[in-house]
Amino acid sequence: MVKDTHSTTAIKGRKKILIIAGSDPTAGAGLQADLKTITALGGYGMTAVTAVTVQDTRQVKKVTPLSADLVAQQIAVCLADMGADAIKLGMLATAEIVQVVAEQLANYPDIPVIADPVLAGTGGGTLLDGPGRRAFMDLLLPRITLLTPNGPEAQILTGLSVGNRQEQEAAAHKLTQSGCSVLLTGGHLPGDPIIDLLVDPSGSVAPFVSRRLTGRGFHGTGCTLTSALSVGIAHGIPHPKAVESALAYLHRAMKGALTLGAGQQLLYSRA
Ligand code: PXL
How many domains does the chain have? Predict the structure, then answer.
């Protein structure tokens, strides 16, 4: 009898995560960073590509969104055939893509959604346009389980200034009003240590304190942190513990960062 080598691979304990994000050819950010992180942490990542960027370690040179219909189809086939324990959102590029992502997610209300509101690249370039930002707030935010903005992103999404710890907390509270938990990272605020704040819709606030790592600038920190979080949440780990583990992974990847190009360093960690 011929042994079936295709259908027997168990993924017991290995969580499936659908990544909906853009491509970064340096593989430092975007869906490549997401896949590397999820794989390193023992998950299985699937990808629905939203856009192709052309960038090196210094700057974003070009951004080309895919058609919203193509994005919707990638999501639909993965979820119908394979299912997912969590969905991780990164760069969404346009209002049309935001809308079809919201429509697809509405078919799977029980899957947790962890979202990095990617608005601009670390190397410049608009990664979600103005109408996309409004659609994100109106259509997607209410469906998100945990949102992970940095200071500038929170500032744009709320219209509030995020220049100090009190403002960071106020902006996070405002974002939770649509029902999601928020991890508002503090790396853009001056000083050492960095304080990231986890705020949930009930109003509870948990600070996470880390030493600031210096270097030539790190590419893909938001993608890596959010993907690591999505693995913890796929396992059903409570948010504070998932944040602690994801930050530990992020710091390992920052400490192991590689200097491969002329610009920012690329995060690297095997686990
Ligand atoms: O780090 C945010 C980000 C997300 N996704 C893509 C990117 C970037 C930053 O450059 O290129 C595709």
Answer: 1
| DSSP letters for 37-97 | HHHHTT-EEEEEEEEEEEE-SS-EEEEEEPPHHHHHHHHHHHHHHT--SEEEE---BSHHH
Among positive and negative, which fits the CA dihedral 115, 119, 121, 122? negative
Question: Domain range for residue 44?
Answer: 13-264
In a domain, 89, yes or no: yes
Q: What is the CATH number of the domain that holds 37?
A: 3.40.1190.20
The model's pTM: 0.95
Q: Which atom of ligand 1 is nearest to the CA of 223?
A: 1
Contact yes or no for 20/99 (Cβ under 8 A):
no
If you measure from the C-alpha of residue 56 to the centroid of ligand 1, how many angstroms do you get, rounded to a whole number? 11
Q: What is the pLDDT of residues 106-128, one digit of tens each?
A: 999 999 999 999 998 877 789 99
Task: Output the residue whose Cα is nearest ligand 1's atom 8.
Answer: 121
Query: Ligand 1, atom 4: nearest CA belongs to which residue?
Result: 30
Which atom from ligand 1 is nearest to the alpha carbon of 222? Answer: 1
State how far the Cα of 258 lies from the Cα of 254, in Å rounded to an integer. 9
